[in-house]
Amino acid sequence: MTDVADAVHRQRPRVEGGREEEILAATVDVLVELGYDRLTMDAVATAAKASKATLYRRWSSKAELVVDSISRAKGCPVPDDVDTGSLRGDLIALSCDQGGFDELPMSVMAGLLTALHRDADLQEAFRERFLAPRLEVMSRVYERAAERGELAPGTDVELLAQTLPAVVVHRAFVLGIEPTEDLILRVIDHVILPAARGSQVR
């Protein structure tokens, strides 16, 4: 986790016991029912049978609460580290985090993506709480790949790291096609790995 994201979590103590998971699950339910724009802390507190004070002790805004809830909703938390011994193995191990948001309809995620462009709080929360820890894991994956000699000189690691999520988002929210495991493997085998090796797709 980055220093910024880590600081955010240190400043906000976790809710005790299983209550945090219950609150996040309730947030997902409210998000599905109302969408991001109409979601309020009051609505989540009511759905979770919790006080607003409890919510605000853990999350300073609805943006932070929603971002944490969608991170958990995927059912595939970002691991602290992944090291299978190969770039392909690492990317496949991480691919569950690139798939769909299983508990959220596409319309809900499309609304969130739209809100990202006009809600500064949501942008910040998404960068710090969703993207930052995932990018750290991905950076370590490519660092080890470079140490193993799996990357060609001059490989654009930043661009490669963005390729799989970009394809998934395009398929899901532009074309309306649910991403599959086969798609993820095709992107890894026919786009990312050839580019990492400096070779052309044949």
Automatic annotation (TrEMBL):
What protein name applies here?
TetR family transcriptional regulator
> Do you know which InterPro entries this protein is assigned to?
DNA-bd_HTH_TetR-type_CS, Homeodomain-like_sf, HTH-type_TetR-like_transc_reg, HTH_TetR, Tet_transcr_reg_TetR-rel_C_sf, TetR_C
Q: Which residues bind DNA?
A: 40-59
Q: Indicate whether Cell membrane appears among the record's keywords.
A: no
Q: Which PROSITE patterns match?
A: HTH_TETR_1 (PS01081), HTH_TETR_2 (PS50977)
Pfam families for the chain: TetR_C_11, TetR_N
HTH tetR-type domain spans which residues? 17-77
Protein keywords: DNA-binding, Transcription, Transcription regulation
Keyword Transcription regulation attached: yes
Q: What's an example of a GO molecular-function annotation for this chain?
A: transcription cis-regulatory region binding
